[in-house]
Design goal:
Elements lengths: L2 H32 L5 H20 L4 H20 L5
Amino acid sequence: MNPTSNNADSLDSGVLVSSFIIGLLIGGIFALFRAPKKGVIRQQLTETGDNLRQRIEAAVPSDPIAESLAEGKAAARRRRAELGLQTP
């Protein structure tokens, strides 16, 4: 083995590792500058979710019988609570 060849291999490894670390640092700094401000993504997700819910509610026909049953059950629960009766 040639001692200069071994030295060159370790030099290449050191250059590779240092290049990788420098690349990570540059990428991290770039990501910090490109990241959206805090709360912007949450606001966009909320707006998108609200729009999607409105579209689904408009597309899916409501069932008046199911709604009436749900309202009746809720009223019965409230009345039982007012009277102090336990729910079954």
